[in-house]
Here is the input.
Amino acid sequence: MLEKNLSLLRHNIAVVWKNPKSLLIYPRQMSRKAKFQWIVLGSLAFLLSQRELSFQLSLSVPEVLETRQAEFPPTSARPQLAAIQTVAAPWWEQVKIKSKDIRDKLNLANAATAVGAALSREQQAEAAKYSNLGFVLNPTLPKRLGVSAEVVAFKTKKCTDYVDKYAKIAVEEMELYGIPASITLAQGLLESNAGDSRLAKNENNHFGIKCKKKCLGCRCANYTDDDKYDMFRIFESPWYSFREHSKLLQGKRYKHLLKLEITDYKNWARGLQSAGYATNPKYGVTLIEIIEKLNLQRFDKAAN
Here is the structure.
C-alpha cells in the first residue's frame, strides 16, 4: 500500500514538474480521499526531508570539530605568573591599618588627619571639646584637665599643618602689601580655628571678613555667632580670603599700621586690637602668643 501511494506521489510530482499550472487545476479534480492522501503524503515527504537534513548536519559536526582541534592543538605548558613584589604602604596607611577604630573611608591625606584617625572613639569625642589652639596657648591645660597626649598631639598638629599649608601665601601677601606674614597666619589660625570653623570650611573665609554695606558686589552668608544681622563674605577659595584680608588692612582704619617695621609683630597685634578688628579685649595678646608659640615670626625675616 505504501509503495502504491509513493508511486502515485511520484506520478503527481512528475505531472506538476512538467506542467506547473496543473498544481492549480489538479486538486479540484481529486476526490476527498485523494486530497487527504495527497496532504498526508506531502507532509510525510517533508518530514523525511528534514530528518535527512538534520542527519547530514549531525554527521558533519565532528569533522569540523576535529579540524579545529587539529589546527589549534592544546598546549601542555601553563603561562608563567609575574612575580609580585610587596611595596611598603605609606606611613599614614600604616597608621590606618594598625588602629582598630578607623573606618575604611577616612581621608588620610595629611598628617593631622592620620593622627586623628589613630584616636579611639573616646579620644575623638574628647578632642571635639577643645579648640585647635587651646593647648598651644595653654600648655599646662592638658595636665590640669587630664587630657591624653594623643589628643594634644592631634590638636597641635592641626595648627602646624595650617601653618605649613598657608605660609607661602602669607609671605606672598607680605611682599605685596607689607603685612607681616606672622600676623596674617596668626589671625587666620585664630579666626578660623586652624581652618576648622564653619565659616572657613563652608565659605573659605579664614578671617571673619564681613560683607560690605548692603552686600554690594559680593556674596554673603549669615552666621549668628556674634549677631543675627552679621553677614560674612563667601570666597571661592582660601586664597581669595587671604587676598581680601590684605586689602582690608590697606583701608583707613588700619593704614597707619603699615608704617611699622615688618618684623614688629607685637605692635601690629596691639594696633589691630586698638583699631577694632575684633571685640575680644585680649585679641592683641592672643595674636602675640600664637606667633611666639608656633615661631611664626620666622616668616617675617624672609622679607629682609
Remarks:
- Strands lie at 220-222, 231-233.
- The radius of gyration is 45 Å.
- The CA atoms of residues 164 and 242 lie 15 Å apart.
- The domain at 170-303 is CATH 1.10.530.10 (Lysozyme).
